[in-house]
Every structure is written in structure tokens, then in C-alpha cells.
Amino acid sequence: xxxxxxxxxxxxxIAFTALANSPSFEDKYxxxxxxxxxxALDREYLLALLNSPRIEHNRxxxxxxVSKTVPEFFxxxxxxxxxxxxxxxxxxxxxxxYTIKHVNDAKLVEGLLxxxxxxxxxxxxxxxxxxxxxxxxxxxxxxxxxLAGNKSPExxxxxxxxxxxxxxxxxxxxxxxxxxxINNLHSVFDQIRQESRGWEWQNSALSYYIAFPDKxxxxxxxxxxxxxxxxxxxxxxxxxxxxxxxxxxxxxxxACEKEAEGSDLNTHVYLRTLARLKGLKARNYIVTFLDSxxxxxxxxxxxxxxxx
Length: 308
Prior knowledge:
- It is a single chain.
- By secondary structure, this protein is an all-alpha fold.
- It is 65% helix and 0% strand.
């Protein structure tokens, strides 16, 4: 009966899914043998293993990623696994480690690294740190994201050299530097900012400067507040607030007014900055948002004024 269902395109996916969800030894044996007989794996079979709640089928899929040709469609499905995917279970970590070490496809390695996010055991940490030096920047970025929240001393030791290396550095290292309170790399980010005019590194440098504010960057924050880029402009406003630059209140209000043209929701960063800077002008401006048609903005204004 199963053979008939598998041969029919209309029921093929349902049949493979049923096999992959089945606890029977016969069905597991069939799926194992099916892979042995194929060089390239077909869509329905892969999706059934990918979505199976059974650990043995998840392990089978991870092993097949090493030994078989993976069709192009699979990348999207694999990279889209949700945060609660059964592939993130701790019991599968050794299998994921093995697959990462033996697969030659950078896209698959990137997807596998996403499964390691939140796991901070020593083996996972070691695998991710090694991949911070991978030849593909997408893999290095994925490794950095997987290491978020990891307080490993080995990671902390490795980070400065990585961010200083123009070949290996990726902007996703910056949050790790901030997490580990590595606060003596301002000159490195100055150099990066001069060499790379792209948004990604400009934004990354701003994040670092804000995490470890220094009066040296007052002029830079003031200049960036006039940027056409909303994200950079907002970070600059935060930086001015952290440096208590009351001389920039007028400029912050002007930037806030421009963003308010789209929606009052766009003003929140500026309102919080003005509340940090204090002063009558800042207070009076925040008062004007008590009547905002956006309730979230009106509530924020009320909260800031209560804490004045």
C-alpha cells in the first residue's frame, strides 16, 4: 500500500511523512534503504525527514547532508527552521557537530550553525569559535550569531584578534565584543569606519561607540545626527544623550520632528534622549506628545515626565 502511495505524485508527500512519523522498525528501515539507493535526494523524502518529530530520522537527515547531493530548494527549508525546531534539541548536538565538520557546503554550515544558537557547552563553543575563521563571511557571521550570550573565556580571548583582522572580521562580532565588555578597541573601529564607508560597518561602529561612550566622538555623533539614514541618526541621538550633550537639544528636536512626519512611533528614541538630557526646552517638547494620537507614544511621554 505504501509503495502505491509513494508512486502517486498526489500522495507521495503524505506517504513519506507517515513513514517519517512512524515508530516502527520496518518504516525506519525503509527510509534508511531508500537513501542508500539514491545519489540525489528528492523533495518529499527530505521534507519528511526535516519535519519528522523522531530523533532517529533527524539524525539520518544530518548524516545524509554529508554524503548526498542536496537539491537547491532544501536550503530555504533548512535555513528557515524555527527557534523551537526539534533539531535544536541537545541530544542532536553531537550529530550537528559532526555534520558541520564534514559537510563542504557553506550554506548548509550556515544553517547548521543556527541550530547551535543558545547552546553554550564546551564542544559547541569550540566548533563555533573555529568557524569564526571560515573562508566564507556568511559562515563567520552565522558562527558569531550562534555565540551570542556565550561567556566563554576562550571566545573573549579570540575576539580582539578577529575584529582587527580585515580578512576575517564581520560586523556580527561587534555585539560579542560589547557582551564581553571589551572596551579598548575604539581605534580599531575608527580605522574600520575610515576604510569601509558602507552602512553595515558605520552602524556597527556606532553601536560600539554607544556601548562605550567617549567624549572624543561628540562631533561624530553630532554630524551623524544629520544623516539621511534613520538607523544611524537614531544611534547618534542615543550617543549624544549618553554624553549629556545639552548643546544638541535643538538638533535632536529637529531630527525628531522630521521623523514624526511619518509616525509618532518614530520619535521614541529622541524622546528618551531628551529625557536623559533634561532641561526646560526638552521637557516642554516632550509635553507636546501627551496628546499624541498614538497611545504608545502618549504613554511614553507620560512615563518620561513622571520620572523627570
